[in-house]
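Page 42, continued from yesterday. The earlier attempt failed because a stray header line got pasted into the input along with the sequence. Redoing it now with the clean sequence only.
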Amino acid sequence: MSVSNPTLITFVIYIAAMVLIGFMAYRSTNNLSDYILGGRSLGSVVTALSAGASDMSGWLLMGLPGAIYMSGLSESWIAIGLIVGAYLNWLFVAGRLRVQTEHNGDALTLPDYFSSRFEDKSGLLRIISAVVILVFFTIYCASGIVAGARLFESTFGMSYETALWAGAAATIAYTFVGGFLAVSWTDTVQATLMIFALLLTPIIVLLATGGVDTTFLAIEAQNPDNFNMLKNTTFIGIISLMGWGLGYFGQPHILARFMAADSVKSIAKARRISMTWMILCLGGTVAVGFFGIAYFSAHPEVAGPVTENHERVFIELAKLLFNPWIAGVLLSAILAAVMSTLSCQLLVCSSALTEDFYKTFLRKNASQVELVWVGRAMVLLVALIAIAMAANPENRVLGLVSYAWAGFGAAFGPVVLISVLWKGMTRNGALAGILVGAITVIVWKHFSLFGLYEIIPGFIFASLAIYFVSKLGAPTTGMLQRFDAAEADYNLNK
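This time it went through. C-alpha cells are written below.
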C-alpha cells in the first residue's frame, strides 16, 4: 500500500476529531428525542450547514465534477435544478414542517408525522412510509460507502474491499455513539471543509493552466461543445436534470434538519446561510470538472486514473496540484461529504426501525435508554447491509444516488409539500401518494420510458393521486383544528 504520510496523518486527525465530537454529543444524549432529533435544539447556523452537508454527499465532489468533466456545461442543468428546488423547499416546507410536527404529537420521524397528521390508527401509513425509507436509504447509504471506498482506494492504494470498510468505519463510529447531535455538529465542520475545498481547488487549477483565457481556449480546443449548455441534450434531457430539484421536498435526512430547528424564527436566517453555501459549493463543483478538462488535456501523462474513472477528477487534481498536507485537507472534504450524508441516512433508517417498528409494534413501554441502544444497533445493521450492497467495484456514485433521490422525491415529496399547505388532505390521499410515487419510480426506472428521469412522472402521478383520493373523503375535525393551529403558529412566528 503506497501511503503519502502527510495525507494519511491529515485523514487520521480529521477522523479522530469527528469521533471526538461524537463522544461529546454522547454526553448530551439522554433519550430517543435527543438521539433522533437532538431535542429540537439546533440554531440557524447549524440547521443551515447541517441541511446543506447532509444533502451534498460524495456526488458533490465526485459524481458531478466527473459528469462535467465528461460532458461539459450541459451537465450543469442538474445544479440549476437543485438550487431552485432547495430554495423552494426552504421557503414553503421548512418552517411549516417544523410547527406541523410539533402540533402533531411532537413527531420525531416522517412516518411518525404522517401517522399523527392523518390520525392513522391502523399503522398502515407508518409501516409503508418506514419501508420506503429503509429500501431507498439503504441504496443511498451504499452510494456513500462507494464514494468513501473510491477515495481510500485512490488515495492510499488500498484494494476496493479494504477501502470499503475503511471508508465506512469512522462514520458508523460517531453516528453510533452520538446520534443526531454528533451528526449535526460534525456536519457543520464538514460543510466548512467542503466549501473551502470547492472554492480553493478551481482557483489553483486555473493558475496551473495559465489563467482564465488560456484555460477556456484549452477547453474549447478539446471540444468546442464543452461550452454549449444544450450539447447532446433534448428538452426531455434538460427537464430530467432540472427535475432533481423536486427531490428536496421528500428527502427525510434534509427534512429532519427542519424538524430539529430550535424555532421557526431560525428558519429564515438558516435559509439565507444554506442557499449561499449551496450556490458557492455547486459553482465550485462545476468549475472543478470544467477546468479539469483543460488541465488533463495539457497533461495527458497523468490523466490515466481520470480516463479510467471520471469521478476521480477532484481527487487527482488535489493530489497533483497541492502540497501533500493541503491535499490531505482537500481530500478530507470528500470524506466530509460522504460522512455527513451517510451519517444522516444511517440515523434516519435507525429512527424508522426504532421509533416506527420497535417502539410502535414490539415494545410500546420500552425505556428511553433501551430505545437509544436499539437505535444504535439499527445503525450497525443498516450499515452492514449497505456495505454488502456497495461491494461491487463497478458501482457508480451518481447512478445509485439518482435512484434513491427519485424514490424519496416521488414517494414523500408530494405528501410532505401538500400536507403542510392543504388542510383538505386525508389519510387515504397520503397513502395513495406514497404508493403511487414509489411504484411509479420503480416501474419507470425499470422500463426507462421516454428517457425521462423517473422522479418527474412519480411526483406528478403522486400529487394527482393525493388530490383525487383526498376528494373522495374528508379530513376529521381534529385534523382541521391541528392544521389551523399549526398554520397560525407559523404565521405568528415566521
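Notes: The chain has 21 helices and no strands.
Reminder to self: strip header lines before submitting.
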